[in-house]
Write the structure tokens for this entry.
Amino acid sequence: MQFGLSEEQVLLQDNVGRFLDDHVPLDRVRAYADGGDDADIWAGLAELGVAALLIPEAQGGIGMTPLDAAIVAESLGAHVTPAPFLGSAVMAPTALVAAGGHDELLADLAAGGQRVGIALGEAIKRRNDASVDVRDGKIFGKSLFAFDADAHQYLVADQTQHLYLVSASDPGLERTPLTTVDKTQRTVQLTYQGAEATLVSSDKRVFEQTLDIGRVMLAADSLGAAQNMLNQAVEYAKQREQFNRPIASFQAVKHMCAEMAASLEPCRSMVWFAGHALAELPAEARVTACHTKAHLAEVCKGVAKTATEVHGGMGFTDLLGLHYWFKRIGANRQWLGAPEFVRQEAAILQGLLD
């Protein structure tokens, strides 16, 4: 029995990594954070087949697995890549394929020509001042923190966990940019004033599958970001000198780096298993996705904090840009359910809570 990535998965990881090394350096991330767009990055990733990963071959895709998508998500997180991967390549295709009957849109997504944002928040945990209501094919209310400010359409969930598609160009939809700590992922508030809502699915299981894979991808993204922060901390410790020797030679710094590595390495297996479970172990998929999202959020938060401390005062400067990874991890921790919330959900699924 072999535990690890296949040759094809290693090749996928290498190809995506090389593309991101060449096309998404830190200066490119800064340009996006300062108001630029990610169109060129997404077009390049689409040419590599990233947009088509989870779409069946019959609809113009590649037909790969959630584990393959998690491998890509880890690379994207390592480069804090501004791209609509979570919505357009993962969650929207998962919902559309599971629901059936959306071949044309799936083909457009596979080619990178369409972007579908995600607005599931109000079906996960309703806020006091936000709600989504669909009546006679028209949608009313608002969704907070919807992914992808530049999407052509949005996959929206109401309180009953029914999924709908809403066009971004509909006059009944208003998009308001929201400010978050993470400038590598843009979110918006969607205000619905009678926009056309096309039903995608009324099956709760489709919503759950879409949510589960989104949580695993966020965990994988955080894993990549935390691993990069660890790598940067180790390299910095090797070069930074105090008392005429590298700080990497100090026992305290060695322990900090070793503890980061020891806490992070098991997370990779956890993410891989979660991706595997989504396709092969449906009975375990939901609980595994919850535990993976919660555990990675906590571990990666700790790694981000410690890696910044290893850099000393330089860790807080924009010159190094370490804060992009730090904030990405912090934002991923909250999207689609904070650790406390998803642990409670896992406890309910396991019969430990009512």
